[in-house]
Write a structure and sequence with these properties.
Chain lengths: 280, 280
């Protein structure tokens, strides 16, 4: 796969990394970036993440063969529909959003003939923002979920898979709902927990936090606006998993309160088994 | 401060690091290690963490000027009382236990004249165990809490402070209860949360966990027996802080459920402010 023109909408940590990887791997001959701030686009160009920056979405998508939306989840569907009006037949649209069902539902069936949208979510990134944190190896060996629905065009799905594999990622195909239920537990709930924990620590105890606390709460440094949108998109699955977690916390509470060291040991041992299986 | 003979009871991650640091910094002329397994003691000696290993506690503490207990919190008080019977007047006993009130209460007032115990807790360590993870720089610039009660001998407190500062740590003096209340929130609760979260993830979702999940749950790989003892020692403060956290989770739940993005943004922004203040 060699893309003549790849357009990246949003050149932050993920968009910038995507541009760097696509250029360094020869996956795209030309990379265009869309952003709201000229200085960020200039910076991304100097970094080598894009060849040219655009403030206007439709100008940047007109020559594109592939467009990847790397903007907050509450902007992707609107931008994809706007881009679809301007781009040529045969153009592939995909994204990197942390939620999939709302986005795919809002876009599917509303595109001009010949323009395809396939949802993607590379499980990469961090609490950091901006092209200054971009890394051309961000996607290497990481899993990218590519979503499929009954309306997904099989050829577009394969092109999306080839794109991510070309960037070094492993690909797993799931339905948007299956993705959102899974990520509610593995990503959105951890963020909520980390934020709840960080939020109850008063300043006089900051000095008494060590590596364990810092690891447990690291993601809480993420951008509040991005996460507010993610929680809004994945409300039901997040609430279901939060209830599951609270039930488990109640089991821990009973074991600690009653001094039931056997029950506590079972709970801690089972958790250790999971965590050991994940590796560092 | 140059200690003629320093005895370390328990030569795992913390005890091994203490021995390495004390020898490399010339803080102790001779370091004796006490353990249950000859092979671990031999390994610690080859590593340079101790000069000589002992299976018998009393043999190892008889020549000691300073004894540091680096064993699980439910063993420290019993070992300190046993050691005190054998050691010379003027010997300083301290520890590295993650809880302080139960230990200090069990030891204070039960020691022979001239033998002093001062509680310590270096906020260092990790989910890893054993001398193979020992690091002579583990305590550098880390905070060590040293506890003081109305019965604490001022000279012993100063010797304890000098010991930790000699190992590179910063020292903060607190009462055992104040320590336990603070660490319930900054260390014991994060462990409980990480374990609860790791524990509810089924194997089919392991592949869908990324860096955020791994950070948030890292401490859950810690040894269940060590943590069962910590929770037993600090039951009341852990339960109080768990209740505080669950109240905060309920606030998050209400905001997500009702789609109150303003409330969610306030909660996430406040958490980010705390986490940003802690640094990486």
């Amino acid at each position: 796969m060699t893309i003549q023109t790849l357009t990246i909408v949003g050149v932050g940590l993920l968009g910038g990394s995507l541009g760097l990887a696509a250029r360094q791997r020869g996956l795209a001959r030309r990379v265009l970036g869309v952003g709201r701030h000229l200085d960020v686009l200039d910076y991304a160009r100097q970094l080598g993440a894009i060849d040219e920056g655009f403030l206007n979405l439709q100008d940047a998508v007109r020559p594109a063969e592939v467009i990847v939306f790397c903007t907050p989840v509450d902007q992707i569907a609107r931008q994809a529909l706007a881009a679809a009006e301007a781009c040529a037949p045969g153009t592939l649209l995909t994204d990197v959003g942390s939620t999939k069902a709302d986005i795919v539902r809002a876009v599917e069936g509303r595109l001009p003939t010949g323009v395809a949208f396939v949802g993607s979510h590379p499980l990469a990134g961090s609490e950091k923002r901006g092209p200054e944190h971009a890394n051309p190896r961000l996607f290497e060996r990481r899993l990218t979920v590519v979503t499929q629905t009954p309306r997904t065009d099989p050829a577009a799905l394969e092109r999306t898979r080839t794109l991510w594999e070309g960037l070094g990622a492993r690909v797993r195909v799931m339905s948007p709902d299956e993705h959102d239920r899974a990520l509610a537990l593995t990503s959105h709930l951890p963020h909520l927990l980390a934020a709840a924990l960080a939020g109850i620590v008063p300043p006089e105890l900051y000095d008494l936090t060590a590596a364990g606390f810092r690891d447990t709460t690291r993601v809480a440094a993420g951008d509040p606006a991005l996460w507010t949108a993610i929680f809004a998109h994945n409300r039901t699955a997040v609430l279901d998993n939060l209830d599951l977690l609270c039930a488990r916390l109640a089991e821990f509470r009973r074991a600690v309160e009653s001094g039931d060291t056997a029950a506590l040991d079972v709970l801690l041992t089972q958790a250790k088994k999971v965590r050991d299986a994940l590796g560092s």
